Predict the 3D structure of the following.
Amino acid sequence: MTVEQIESLAVAQIIEADAHLYIWTINAYVEAAYRIARAWGFKPSTLLVWAKSPKGRGLGGTFSTATEYVLFARRGSLPATARVDRNWWQWPRRHHSEKPEHFIDMVEQVSPGPYLEMFARRHRLGWDVWGNESANTATLEQPRREDVRQEGRVL
C-alpha cells in the first residue's frame, strides 16, 4: 500500500476514543509515520529506536542503517500501565523483517488492551489482527481508489 492509502484507512472509526498507537517504520518513512498518526486522529509522542547489531555493510548510503523506529502516539487520555526507563533497545535480530517479540511484550506492559496489530503476519494470543498475511480477526475498510485524492486525503 502507498502511504496515502495507509493514511486513509478507517482506523479512526474503529478504535476507542482513548488509545495508544505504535507505528513501526524505517528511517526513510519516519516523516510519513507522523503524517499517518495525525491522519488517524493521534498525537505523536515519542520516537522509539531499535538499535540492531550491524550485519555486514547493510543497507543505506553514506551511513549503513542499523536502526528501526516505532512512533508512539496517543489519542485521548488513556493512561499507560507502566513507565519504561528508555526509548531505545538492542533486541537481537531474527529473520528478515521480523520484529522482536520483546517489543510486543513491552506494548502489553505499557498499554492496556484491547490490542489490534495491523499488517500482521501471524496471530498473537489476546490480539486481533488485520493484514494480507494473517487470518484476520478484525475488519477494516480499505479506501476505494476513487476515494483517495492524489495528496492522500479522503474526499
